[in-house]
Design brief:
The complex is a heterodimer of chains A (30) and B (241).
Chain A (H helix, E strand, L loop, with lengths): L1 H26 L3
Chain B lengths: L7 H22 L17 H23 L6 H33 L7 H21 L4 H16 L1 H11 L19 H53 L1
Helix pairs in contact in B: 1-7, 2-3, 2-5, 2-7, 3-4, 3-7, 4-5, 4-6
The chains are: A mainly alpha (30), B mainly alpha (241).
Chain lengths: 30, 241
């Protein structure tokens, strides 16, 4: 089961991380 | 007055993306263990969807590149969209390799093997990195647009080859999971989880790409504004002299 958590975890972390970085880059222009 | 990259559209798309992603996680993690793979078959909800989103990213980059190259539809927007989609594509392409590797270790016994599917998937990620590097080579918008569009179209040729790789060559990677024919053997719950994953990852891809596209527009505006300001300053110097 640990591989399942690893797969789901790394996916969520990557998507949230990239989205946050994207929004932060956009905020510089406000 | 400059604004951020959000709007009502991105807000709606964002809510839909998050809701479908939450549903995918709930459905995926509650799938029953299977005889062959035990709990590891739960990864069917995310890995194929992520790989699909990386194909979509390649497809949108290629399509936007064609629309840029076609003289009647040429506009800076298509070039920026091609670049935005490719950057988001890197995220999905890398995640495809990572989640695939995590699935491969317990089921195949290895993290990585150089079979056709895995090698071509790695090549896709490298091509996206190369494409993004090419876009950063200093050039005016016209030159950048042309050379990156040609590179994108050449790179996108790998996608259909990769899609059929599991049928054309003997690979450790299984054939595609979803077979849209009555002979499909995948259990209904797994098919549902798989399709939900496709939907969620497509929506997440779309949401990220819209934001990245708007960011590219804002960045482009700054370059143009700075250039205009510099030109104006030089003109004033000339008048003063």
């Amino acid at each position: 089961m640990s591989y399942v958590w690893a797969g789901y975890g790394v996916t969520l972390a990557t998507l949230v991380g990239y989205a946050a970085w994207l929004l932060l880059r956009g905020r510089r222009f406000r | 007055m400059r604004r951020g990259t959000g709007s009502v559209v991105t807000m709606t798309l964002g809510i839909a993306a998050v809701a479908s992603l939450v549903a995918t996680y709930a459905v995926g993690l509650s799938l029953p263990p299977t005889y062959e793979q035990g709990d590891y078959s739960k990864l069917i909800a995310i890995h194929p969807g992520i790989a699909w989103a990386s194909y979509v990213a390649f497809g949108v980059t290629a399509l936007a590149s064609v629309l840029w190259l076609w003289p009647r539809t040429r506009s800076l927007g298509w070039d920026l969209l091609a670049g935005a989609s490719a950057e988001v594509g890197v995220v999905f392409s890398a995640l495809t390799l990572v989640t695939g590797s995590i699935w491969g270790r317990p089921t195949w016994g290895v993290w990585w093997v150089w079979d056709a599917r895995l090698t071509l998937s790695a090549l896709e990620l490298m091509l996206l990195f190369g494409y993004l590097a090419l876009r950063r080579v200093p050039a005016d918008a016209e030159v950048r647009g042309r050379r990156s569009a040609v590179a994108a179209l050449l790179g996108a040729l790998v996608v259909p080859v990769n899609h059929y790789a599991v049928e054309w060559w003997r690979t450790l990677h299984q054939d595609r999971s979803l077979d849209l024919t009555p002979q499909d053997t995948l259990d209904g719950r797994f098919t549902f989880a798989l399709l939900l994953g496709f939907l969620a990852m497509t929506l997440v891809y779309a949401w990220l790409t819209v934001h990245r596209y708007r960011l590219a527009q804002l960045e482009e505006d700054v370059v143009t504004d700075d250039l205009d300001a510099a030109l104006e300053a030089r003109r004033r110097e000339a008048v003063d002299a």
